[in-house]
Specification:
The strands form 3 sheets. Strands 1, 2, 3, 4, 5, 6, 7 and 8 form an 8-stranded antiparallel beta sheet that branches. This protein has a 6-stranded antiparallel beta barrel with strand order 9-10-11-17-15-12. Strands 13-14 form a two-stranded antiparallel ribbon. About 0% of the residues have low confidence. It starts with a helix and ends with a helix. The chain folds into 2 domains: about 140 residues, Beta Barrel (Thrombin, subunit H); about 130 residues, Beta Barrel (Thrombin, subunit H). The chain is built from 4 helices and 17 strands. By secondary structure, it is mainly β.
Length: about 280
C-alpha cells in the first residue's frame, strides 16, 4: 500500500543520537534529503541533514531504520536496524554560512553496506521539488498551518520506530525574512531534541492561494518550508534570549521556535554537484 503524504512526513525524519567514543552526548532530530546528480536519478546522493550544534563534539552517531519491504513501503514487524556511523574528518558537510546552523552527512557508504549485507534500509528522502520556489513562497498566507516532525526531549515511539508530530502555525509572515535573516518563527513549543526537525506547511483541506485569491478546497497543501534550530526563552531577569538548545524551564518557555528557511538546503545541492565535478565524491 502506498504511503500517504502524512506518512511520508513521518518516515523522512529520525532521532539522531550522538556519541564521543563510548560516551553519549545528546539527541537531536535529522531528516533525509536526496540530491539528484542525473535527471534519470541513476546518480543520487542521499544525505542526513541536521543542525551543526547537534553534531558538536560527536565522532559517532546512531540511527534506527525500518526494514525495506522492496515495494516502496517499510516492513512493520517490530524489528528494526540500529546503525552506527563513524564521523571522521570530512564526514560532515557544513553549510558555508556560519550563521546558518545546518550540516549534512553523506549516507551512501552506509546504505550500500546495508544493502550488500541483505539488510536494505527504508526511509523517505525529501528533495528539491518539495522546497517552495520563489513564486510559491510569495503565495503563502501570513498565517499558515504547520507540522513539525521530530523528537522533543528525545521522545520517540521506540516500539514503532516513529518520531513525534507537533502542529501549530507560523508566528511571523513566512513570505518575509524574519529580522532580515533566512528564517521565520513558528508558534509551537520547541524542546531539546527537536533541533533539526523538518517543518512543513501542511493542510489536508487545501487553503488560500494568494496568487489567485481562491480557496483550494480538497487539494492537499504540503511544502517543506524549514528546519528548526532554536527557540527564544526568557531568563530570570526578563531578558529574551536565543537558545539553540532550548532549556525546559516552565517559567521561561515562550512557545516559539526559530526555523531556517528550507531554501538554504539547496546549498547542499550545489556543494554536492561541485564535489562531484571535482571528483571528491
Amino acid at each position: 500500500m502506498a504511503l500517504s503524504l502524512a506518512e511520508q512526513m513521518f518516515y523522512c525524519a529520525t532521532k539522531v543520537a550522538t556519541f564521543s567514543g563510548p560516551r553519549p552526548l545528546q539527541t537531536g532530530t535529522g531528516f533525509f534529503y536526496v540530491v539528484h546528480l542525473a535527471q534519470d536519478r541513476t546518480r543520487d546522493v542521499h544525505l542526513l541533514v541536521t543542525n551543526k550544534h547537534v553534531m558538536e563534539g560527536a565522532d559517532r552517531i546512531g540511527l534506527t531504520f525500518h526494514k525495506n519491504g522492496g515495494d516502496g513501503s517499510p516492513v512493520n514487524d517490530g524489528e528494526f536496524f540500529n546503525v552506527f556511523m563513524n564521523i571522521g574528518e570530512g564526514s560532515v558537510i557544513a553549510h558555508p554560512n556560519p550563521d546558518i546552523d545546518l550540516c549534512a552527512i553523506a549516507m551512501g557508504q552506509t546504505l550500500n553496506m546495508m544493502r550488500l549485507s541483505g539488510r536494505p534500509l527504508f526511509y523517505v528522502a525529501l528533495e528539491k521539488a518539495a522546497i517552495p520556489t520563489d513564486e510559491i513562497w510569495a503565495k503563502f498566507d501570513v498565517i499558515e498551518k504547520i507540522t513539525m516532525i521530530g523528537c522533543p526531549n528525545g521522545l520517540f515511539d521506540t516500539a514503532n520506530n516513529m518520531p513525534i508530530a507537533r502542529s501549530g502555525s507560523t508566528a511571523t509572515d513566512i513570505t518575509k525574512k524574519y529580522q532580515g535573516k533566512s528564517e521565520f518563527l513558528i508558534d509551537l513549543a520547541c524542546f531539546p531534541g527537536s533541533s533539526g526537525s523538518p517543518v512543513f506547511v501542511y493542510d489536508p483541506n487545501g487553503g488560500l492561494d494568494r496568487g489567485s485569491a481562491t480557496l483550494e478546497i480538497g487539494r492537499v497543501k504540503l511544502w517543506f518550508v524549514g528546519i528548526l534550530y532554536a527557540g527564544p526563552t526568557i531568563n530570570n531577569l526578563g531578558e529574551i534570549q536565543l537558545a539553540r538548545r532550548p532549556t525546559f524551564q516552565f517559567a521561561s518557555m515562550m512557545h516559539l521556535g526559530q526555523v531556517i528557511r528550507s531554501t538554504e538546503i539547496l546549498t547542499f545541492d550545489r556543494l554536492i554537484q561541485e564535489m562531484d565535478a571535482g571528483g571528491r565524491l
